[in-house]
């Protein structure tokens, strides 16, 4: 959903008046006219009220037609004014082309601006042809006005100025068309997803000594979920305890020790014909020792997977 904003030149509405327009952000000016310019107190007040801030440089409507050096000079002046009101050096400044022209006529000006600010901090305000040319030139922050656009909106414009005023004509309506439209505070990118661990081939970590019937046998498992293996290496992935009956069918009681103590023994059947019993150990490292007590002789081993 597009976020409503307003751009204000000389008027100074209160926060309550701004909110009453439905705006969630305000565009304000840098220029050669101090009575028009954004102030440090406004930055503080808007930010405290949760209003975003968009900045735009405009001295005269046709300034961008004056070439490369004009762009360099305006960029330096705008950047100094940005610092003076306390905005960070990640701030995007839009530069206005407030006249009916094409990109070719203003490209040298914006090349001058970019030589100072770089493309990541350079925005463009203008009609359709200017916005199309700026987009083709690789600029991202594009504020399109309904004027000089012939009723056509560029799909890549990050802000639209559709016409219409508010606050008794003292402010123009705008809509933000992207999550990042060059506003302050700068949007925080979403955290990168944590990739799921990839497991390598299952490996035997340790062969257990023969397990005698009717006797406890403690198998150490490290807190990190890795086996303290007397005959093999350790792994930091899932672990399985594999047990097989020898000569006769029976049962095996299994309990696991955590910081809370020993779990109650759980009986598992083991049969000669049924193959091995596989017990999955918790991956969270909560178990440090597994105790088994079989009713028949067992052989066993621990398998695990290395997290790549």
From TrEMBL:
It comes from the Bacteria. Signal peptide: none annotated. Residues 17-164 form the Rv2525c-like glycoside hydrolase-like domain. This is Rv2525c-like glycoside hydrolase-like domain-containing protein. It comes from Streptacidiphilus pinicola. The lineage of its organism: Bacteria, Bacillati, Actinomycetota, Actinomycetes, Kitasatosporales.
């Amino acid at each position: 959903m597009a976020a409503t904003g307003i751009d204000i030149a000389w008027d100074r509405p209160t926060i309550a008046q701004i909110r009453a327009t439905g705006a969630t952000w305000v565009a304000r000016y840098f220029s050669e006219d101090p009575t028009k310019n954004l102030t440090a107190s406004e930055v503080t007040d808007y930010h405290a009220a949760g209003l975003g801030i968009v900045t735009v440089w405009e001295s005269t409507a046709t300034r961008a037609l004056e070439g490369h050096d004009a762009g360099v000079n305006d960029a330096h002046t705008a950047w100094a004014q940005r610092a003076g009101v306390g905005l960070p050096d990640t701030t995007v400044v839009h530069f206005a082309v407030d006249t009916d022209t094409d990109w070719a006529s203003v490209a040298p000006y914006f090349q001058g601006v970019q030589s100072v600010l770089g493309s990541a901090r350079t925005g463009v305000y203008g009609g359709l042809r200017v916005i199309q040319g700026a987009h083709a030139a690789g600029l991202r922050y594009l504020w399109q006005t309904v004027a000089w656009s012939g009723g056509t909106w560029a799909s890549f414009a990050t802000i639209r100025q559709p016409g219409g005023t508010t606050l008794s004509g003292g402010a123009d309506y705008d809509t933000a068309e992207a999550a990042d439209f060059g506003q302050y505070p700068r949007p925080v990118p979403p955290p990168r997803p944590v990739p799921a661990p990839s497991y390598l081939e299952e490996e035997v970590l340790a062969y257990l000594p023969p397990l005698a019937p009717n006797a406890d046998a403690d198998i150490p498992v490290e807190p990190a979920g890795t086996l303290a293996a007397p005959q093999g290496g350790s792994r930091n992935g899932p672990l399985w305890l594999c047990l097989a009956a020898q000569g006769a069918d029976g049962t095996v009681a299994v309990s696991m020790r955590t910081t809370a103590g020993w779990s109650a023994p759980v009986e598992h059947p083991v049969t000669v014909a049924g193959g091995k019993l596989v017990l999955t150990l918790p991956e969270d490292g909560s178990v440090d020792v597994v105790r088994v007590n079989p009713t028949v002789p067992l052989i066993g081993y621990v398998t695990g997977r290395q997290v790549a």
